[in-house]
Amino acid sequence: MDMETNTPVNSILGSICIVLVETTHPGNIGAAARALVNMGLSDLRLVRPQAFPSPDATARAASGKALLSTARVFSSLDDAIADCGLIVGSTARARSVSWPVMSPSEMAPVVLDSSHHQRAAILFGRESCGLTNKQLDRCQLFVTAPVDADHASLNLASAVLLLAYELRKVALLRDDAAASDRSIIGKDLLATSGMVEGFVAHFQRVLHAAGFVERPSDKLFRKIRRIFTRRALEMDEINILRGVLSAIEKRIDGASNNR
């Protein structure tokens, strides 16, 4: 099938990165790259792939071979998304903690609106089990395809193509100026994932210093993280929160020194 090309649309889509996390089969990386170039996306990032580069990936990539050559490999998810604002996690599993879950068609305009101001990321997990809870903790939004409940498993490349198609379809329906005017996320820059992780680590440190937490509790900190990441935080908001934490730390240090 011949694909419609549109350079301005490809430029808009260029601010969206697709992150494949711990991919098991290299052929799926190649097939995903082919799907991405079909839809005009050009930023592919790989986190700890089991095998890459690989002849299997190259063979499955077809027209996506050039994208494979520019794909970046990272040793951690945090490094892969450190420069991104909005982070979207693809998942098919129900979660114990409630947060926004969208269909692909609902997700596309939100990601495109955010990507006009800074880079956005969509994460895909391992073929057998998807993204872990810890990896999903890095996301503000989640997307799930409305597939048949009796046949819910999607091939990785098929899932990538489905979401990439929705992004391209929406991008073709709007021009750059119109998208900026009706931004859902807002015109203020979002805090990058790296900034959010720095704040969360700072918050945990202050809770320990204040005596609120005496021993590590992953469950508690997951719930605390969700309080602050239920929506995408702006850079100014992170700076204010870090300032508050620094003031609290000074008071704690002062009280300790006066004992």
List the helices and strands and how they pair.
Layout: H1 7-13, E1 16-21, H2 26-38, E2 43-47, H3 55-61, H4 65-70, E3 72-74, H5 77-80, E4 87-90, E5 101-102, H6 104-115, E6 120-124, H7 133-136, E7 141-143, H8 156-172, H9 176-181, H10 193-209, H11 218-229, H12 235-257
Parallel strand pairs: 1-2, 1-6, 2-3, 4-6, 4-7, 5-7
Strand share of the residues?
5-15%
Classified by CATH, the class of the largest domain is Alpha Beta
Oligomer state of the chains in this structure? single chain
Structural class: alpha/beta
Anisotropy-based shape: elongated
What is the fold named in CATH at topology level of the largest domain?
A: Alpha/beta knot
Number of helices: 12
How many domains is the backbone divided into?
Answer: 2
Low-confidence stretches: 179-186
Strand order, main sheet: write it out: 3-2-1-6-4-7-5
Straight-line N-to-C gap: 76 Å
How many extended strands?
7
What do these coordinates show?
The structure is a single chain. Helix 2 links the parallel strand 1 (16-21) and strand 2 (43-47). A 7-stranded parallel beta sheet has the order 3-2-1-6-4-7-5. Helix 1 crosses helix 8 (156-172), helix 2 packs parallel to helix 3 and helix 6 packs across helix 8. The radius of gyration is 20 Å and the shape is elongated. The model is unreliable at 179-186 (pLDDT under 50). It has 12 helices and 7 strands. It has 2 domains: 7-181, 3-Layer(aba) Sandwich (Alpha/beta knot); 193-257, Orthogonal Bundle (Helicase, Ruva Protein, domain 3). The protein has 259 residues and is α/β, with parallel strands linked by helices. It has helices at 7-13, 26-38, 55-61, 65-70, 77-80, 104-115, 133-136, 156-172, 176-181, 193-209, 218-229, 235-257, and strands at 16-21, 43-47, 72-74, 87-90, 101-102, 120-124, 141-143.
